[in-house]
Amino acid sequence: YIIRKNLQQPSLDALNSAASKVKNPVSRRQLEALTATFKKWLSQAEDVTISCNVPKVEVSGVPGFDFTTGVWQKAAELKPFKLVKNLKHKQTPDISAEPTKAKIMHNGKNIFVAYSARFPGKIANISGKREAPYDKWPVGDRGEIFIGNNRNGYYQLAFSSCANGRNGICDAAGSTDAKNTDPSWNAQWHAYTKIYDNEWRAVVVIPFSSLGVILEQNNMVRALFCRHRPQRHSNDISINTSWNGGRAHHVSSFGALVFDLE
Questions:
Q1: Which pTM value belongs to this model?
Q2: Cα separation of 112 and 147, whole Å?
Q3: What are the CA-CA distances from residue 44 to residues 154, 182, 215 (Å)?
Q4: DSSP element (H, E) containing 42
Q5: Whole-angstrom Cα distance, residue 66 to residue 140?
Q6: Which of 19, 20, 63, 148 reaches 20 to 30 Å from 176, CA-CA?
Q7: Cβ(52)–Cβ(258) below 8 Å
Q8: Going by DSSP bridges, is the β-strand pair 51-54/255-259 parallel, antiparallel, or unpaired?
Q9: How far apart are CA 3 and CA 5, in angstroms?
């Protein structure tokens, strides 16, 4: 809100003005700490190229796979995924021929993310149809989510699109997680997937507690939502897409999620 309304400098001026008027040394130190924290948040936010306000919604249980009805109607829709630019494949246009869409919401305890990823033809054309062990890198068409609490740290969650085969629902099967590329970190998150004739869908549930996020203290995090569709045959290339074209593991390319408190 402060950045959207261009209130960075007025806010800093108000904090500095308040500090200059405080006589109590304890209060002055508290204001100095508050000002330092505010500057830190600004430094993290000012290079954000895309952001999303995440609505707070009453959610009980795991929402279903129909992303046009029920509580999903109240979720925020992330802008369509763009192709990730790299030196090996200079791909144009920005939007993949196999588009991916995502929605997001929260209920104060969990983040809920919906993936809808298109692919051509029938299920036989998609790889990775078998269940993979938990905490093993998922094979085949997959989703990845990166969430960071600060400029240098992030959490990575990756899940297979079809861990249990056609129309199967998987509870964190064929998935892995890591903190700053350390796979020994584990969180109590869940990925549920379902395969249709020309798309796969996923519902991902991520507890704030697993990420160390306390909304009352900081309701903004850096995040990136990705899809990796692997090479299907020798004349094919893999397709990597993400929210706004950000690059995996590069926190500076992540967007910002601002969670509504009410």
A1: 0.75
A2: 13
A3: 13, 23, 17
A4: helix 25-45
A5: 23
A6: 63
A7: yes
A8: parallel
A9: 5
